[in-house]
Amino acid sequence: MPRAAAILPGLDGMADENSIAIVGMAGHFPGARSVREYWSMLEAGRDATRWLTPEELLAAGESFAAIQDPRYIRATMALPDMEMFDAGFFGFSPREAAILDPQHRHFLECCWEALEDAGHMPADEFDGAVGVFGGCGMQAYLAFNLLSNPELVESEGMFLLRHTGNDKDFLTTRVSYLLNLHGPSVGIQTACSTSLVAIHMAVQSLLARECDMALAGGASIDLPHGRGYRYAEGEILSSTGRCRAFDDEADGTLFGSGAAVVALRRLDDALRDGDNIHAVILGSAINNDGARKAGYLAPSIDGQAMAAAEALAIAGVEPGSVDYIEAHGTGTLVGDPIELSALQQAYGDAAPGSIGIGSVKTNIGHLDTAAGIASLIKVVLAMRGEKLPATLNFSKPNSRFDFVRSPFQVVGEQKEWRRNAKPRRASINSLGVGGTNAHVVIEEPPVRAPLMASGPQIITLSAKTRVSLEGLVAKWRDFAETPGPDFCIANSAFTTQTGRKHFAHRATVVAANAHELAEQLSPNGPWRRTASVAKDAKPRIVFMFPGGGAQYPNAARSLYENNTVFRGAVEDCFKILEAGLAKEIRRLMFDSSEFKQDSVALERPTYSLLAVFIVEYALSKLWQSWGVKPDAVIGHSAGEYAAAVLAGIMSLEDAIGIVLVRGEVFETAPAGGMISVQDDEARVRALIGEDLDIAVLNSPQVTVVSGADAPLAAFSKRLEAEGIKHAPVRIKVAAHSRMLDSGLARFRARLDKAKLSPPKIEFINNLVGAPANPQELAASDYWVNHLRGCVRFADGLSAALSKPETILVEIGPGQALCALAGLAQAEHSPRGVVASLPTAVEQLDAESFALSAFGHLWSLGVPVDFARVRKGEGQRKVSVPTYAFERQRHWIEPGKGKAAAETDEPQIFRASDVKDWFEARVFDAAPVEAAAHGARTHIVFSDGSDFAAEAISRLRAR
User: Would you say the pTM of this structure is higher than 0.70?
Assistant: First the structure.
């Protein structure tokens, strides 16, 4: 029958309406803090076993007698960061977090990470109900750590201790409450099969359309944690500290701790929304053994076989089409042969040896209530990695089962598992004490054509705190340094922009590939330039347009080459110019091969003013196409013409005509220049004499003087004598001075031909340094005075910043106005200052820089629309790094209990053979738990001596 892989264009068939997509995965496993680390461990053929030293065991609270027992196995499958939790992220106080069961903590974090991996955030960001299905293990933390502290029980009360996260009933509903999820929220408790049953229940809920996305999984954490265990013959635990699933020497497993969650959606919904489809669930089934077995704790062949057969029937696939089965595989004497016999009943029609079989318990131990989902995620990762990881510790098939006549072959060594003509399929089997069996059949994800994306992309990163943002940057840097074969920068960008909740602490980077991304995210890299704290208050955006001298060859070249809006605006300007002039200006602006030579050419007033205007006009059009429109504009000298076009004061044709005449006025004026002086207006006026004019006030401490060459030279010498810093302005014109008087009539004549209108947005008048009267901008007088008079830019900038939450965006080549904004003395500091283009000396790609500027606005809290900059690329969500939780230790140590707390009697440990061991070990060991907690402890030997008194005293002193 047609399968789910055949839904996309170019493939035959339609999606099975009962197929469920796995769109998100998250997990914390022994030896692996994430799904990515989990696959690294599986692919490398490693296990997570830690062999503990006696010192470590004593420090963990294990007793002397237990460690001495020859049946004590010093192996543990510890969970990294077991006691850690980001309380603040989920709104817990430190005390509330310490009371919360660690199983609930890890499950909650995994739910958030699974949603992020799916690219669908809860509440308002996802249009549909989200359900939660899961279970956890025994409430050991409540029993051992909380109830043993009588003061805690008395202060909090049993009701709150249980109801604030220490009962299985509240595992899923707590998630639904904290994440504002409105679908079914159901606790599942079927012992070792819990998490796979949770997946089945989630699938049923999705198919019944009770929810539109579902989180399913489980958590199990052994307490006391990080210790070994005592082996007992005939029980489930291994005598060697190794799980040898399906091996002839198998004698049990060992328990691990972990939590994992998957996010599920109906396949047609996932395909429609461009979701990250890890794999497809074709069918699942659950049942119970009933009384058809040797005892309540024993497994049943028939029960497991019926669940597997039903799952295959629901999936609509033949047993022989399944390549691999991830079995429960505890490596026990009785359990493995029973499970294999049950699976043979369901899969017996398959060819001998055609189905691989394995168990992840050989890598991470038995995760109890989280075992099934750990198995499922392993298989999904194997499909994505196109490798079946080895089942470890396997050397000889279990002789209690006839493998030769079965369809099964243990995957004892890693093997390739690549796509081929038929879809790859696998099954996961899980069973629980009490008889509830679960079986799930999955298939590889649909084949989709690779995205052909090119050019720079914006990666958005955000967190609730600066520390978490730094951590997220580090996670992304590691990710970019080792990208997978299916890495796509456009899809990664799309995922961060549309599939993450946007928090206040933000940063963006722009990159075209993984290598660039890693460089951008270096510890002191460009991401820090955009790192900002977004505010809720609506920002006020002011566009700043630089004047003459800002131009340089090849400014905005890559934008002209790659962005259709920018290029179109530039070409609209060139169409107005005479063809020869347009050709030369185009070459200097966007096709310069001699930077120094062409820089000199661009200093010609007509060329420089046109070049600046064209870039500014095109940039303003680009920003508008990106959905960013200013609340006000301010121009610096000649920058006011592009500002005037944007504000609707004059047409593009009139503006270019006026700029051309302005250039001609400059070129025909007497020789002169300008000097920028680092001093205030009053001091400079006292020094300039009668022959020079103050042309520009750039800041309270930067004044520009203009005039003829000879008086300027004399002025420069006076400045040197006074020790005042100064420098020539890179424009060979005495702008805004008496040197232009002879050309003013000509300039006015061109203005009189233009149609001038009042501005449609606030326009800062630089002649007075305040918002302009709209009507005065519609008269020629303003623009004539603008050419001749002093530019009071510093005052104008103060006026622009007179209102709070203002963001300044420089619209033009270079970053001169951004620098002046840093010197401004205004009532309010700007929320942010953003440059659209790099400086001439930075040699940075203009397109990437402009995109970075757009991203910087998002970092500052501007509600931008990233779809406007994606150019139709990057429409699929993919697995990228999830939130960097700021985990801290939240833990309540086990107490002495009420009875022990109320008695002053010493605790007595007796042993006949501990003296020699104690003499050899105790003085190098870490303090024992009893000493650490201040208990009165004696070890009394068989001869009646109290040798331990001195040792305990020394331990306490340490």
Answer: yes
